[in-house]
Amino acid sequence: MAISPAQNISSYIIQSQEEEIKRIAFELHEGVGQTLYSLYTGLQFLESGVEQPAAKSYLRDMALVLEKTIQEVRLLSVELHPPTLTTLGLLPAIKSYIKLYTSTFGIEVKLENKGAEKPIAEHNSIALFRVCQEALGNIAKYADTSNARLSFIWEPVSLKIEISDAGKGFDVKKAINQSSGLAAMHERMILAGGQCHISSAIGKGTTIRISLPLT
């Protein structure tokens, strides 16, 4: 399938954005994250040396707030660009993201992996990760559910991914017209040479199926 000039421009813009996002994620993790952790350990040290109950309780509360902030910064860093995506690949990056996602939102994600994992070009891995990320993010925001399922199906010539929940559901046509996130999911998969299909019903949940050729 031939790629149009408009698609080439969109692909270039997305690639440039990803490079900048990667830089910001690194600085957020290595700079802000490390500084917050140093403050957190400092508060714990102070708490251990304080005897007054009121002061000790205050320091403990501050340490808990800081611990929650560190967790949020870590999730934000991974959402921007998971380091494992570049070093270990798509599936480990998804596993790492799900772990942080569950601890942050309290939503259990059942991950299924079927077939033999195959190498994927980095730009395609990023596209797939972003679509999964958007889908899970929407579940946390709108689905009103405590469980979700994410399935990887490795076939000889393609990878199929399914993200589903049994939450509120929504009107797909109306939502795609109103949501830049859903439209971006379609756009990313088209640029990667794949497909994205969203199905949902009010009160019955949502299923997102994406596929990408591997040849």
TrEMBL record:
The residue ranges crossing the membrane are none
Entries under InterPro entries matching the protein: HATPase_C_sf (IPR036890), HATPase_dom (IPR003594), Sensor_HK_TwoCompSys (IPR050482), Sig_transdc_His_kin_sub3_dim/P (IPR011712)
Q: Which GO terms describe its molecular function?
A: ATP binding; phosphorelay sensor kinase activity; protein dimerization activity
Keywords, A to Z, come to: ATP-binding, Kinase, Nucleotide-binding, Phosphoprotein, Transferase, Two-component regulatory system
Catalysed reaction(s) here are: ATP + protein L-histidine = ADP + protein N-phospho-L-histidine
Question: Which EC numbers does the record give?
Answer: 2.7.13.3
- Annotated Histidine kinase/HSP90-like ATPase domain ranges read 125-214
Query: Has keyword Phosphoprotein?
Result: yes
Q: Which Pfam families match?
A: HATPase_c (PF02518), HisKA_3 (PF07730)
For the Signal transduction histidine kinase subgroup 3 dimerisation and phosphoacceptor domain, which residue ranges apply?
22-85
The protein's matches in SUPFAM superfamilies, at most eight in alphabetical order, are given as:
ATPase domain of HSP90 chaperone/DNA topoisomerase II/histidine kinase
Q: Which GO terms describe its cellular component?
A: membrane
What protein is this chain from?
Answer: histidine kinase
